[in-house]
Amino acid sequence: MKHTPPFARRTLLRAAGLSALAALGAGATRAAAPSADAPTPVQMWKSPSCGCCKDWTAHMQAAGFKLQVFEMADPGVQRAKLGLDAKYGSCHTALVEGYVLEGHVPAADVRRLLRERVPALGLAVPGMVVGSPGMDGPEYGGRRERFDVLLVQRDGSSRVWATHNA
């Protein structure tokens, strides 16, 4: 596979839209991580009325991510465009350095994924799990349900990446 410099990939993605991700192929080299003092950019698609998505955004920002938020009536449309099966669905979809994030994925798990550079589509926390980041505010009365973060492969299979609140 021909190597595309990181700046060229970013230009390609901006010019051609996110559907260009598929054109890069499963084995494409990911762009270099930003410097330690620069926030890591994340694009996020959510419903305009979702409060837990706003809380997940705050969680990610507190962990050093810079979110660009796009509001849309059905964020599931973006999930499908990025190649993530609906069975992994939650209330919002995000993209960080070529990886798809679905639902209330903890920032620490995203950092681990970016550090390890595992070949995968991304991470998902299906559903709306109480106690996950963004679903852990005072309105939930301190409840914390056990949940798994799944590492989703490009073929649609998955395995447990991390378990929380066990």
Write the layout of secondary structure elements.
Layout lengths: L5 H11 L3 H5 L15 E7 L4 H12 L2 E7 L4 H6 L10 E5 L2 E5 L3 H10 L5 E4 L21 E6 L5 E7 L2
Parallel strand pairs: 1-2, 4-5
Antiparallel strand pairs: 1-3, 3-4, 5-6, 6-7
Can you describe this structure?
This protein has 166 residues and is of the alpha/beta class. Helices cover 27% and strands 25% of the residues. It has 5 helices and 7 strands, in the order ααβαβαββαβββ. The chain has a 7-stranded mixed sheet with strand order 2-1-3-4-5-6-7. Strand 3 (92-96) and strand 4 (99-103) form a beta hairpin. The longest helix has 12 residues, at 51-62. The radius of gyration is 15 Å and the shape is globular. The termini are far apart. Residues 1-34 have low confidence and may be disordered.
Widest sheet, order of strands: 2-1-3-4-5-6-7
Span between N and C termini?
A: 42 Å
Number of helices: 5
Secondary-structure content class: alpha/beta
Average pLDDT metric: 83
Strand percentage: 15-25%
Q: How would a textbook summarize the main sheet?
A: 7 strands, mixed
Taken from the alpha-carbon principal axes, the silhouette is globular
Binned, the helix content reads: 25-40%
Number-wise, the strands total: 7
Low-confidence stretches: 1-34
Q: Give, in order, the helices and strands.
A: HHEHEHEEHEEE
Instruction: Calculate Rg over CA atoms.
Output: 15 Å
List keywords for this structure.
seven-stranded mixed sheet; alpha/beta; single chain; globular; 166 residues; disordered N terminus; 27% helix
Quick structural overview:
It is built from five helices and seven strands, in the order ααβαβαββαβββ.
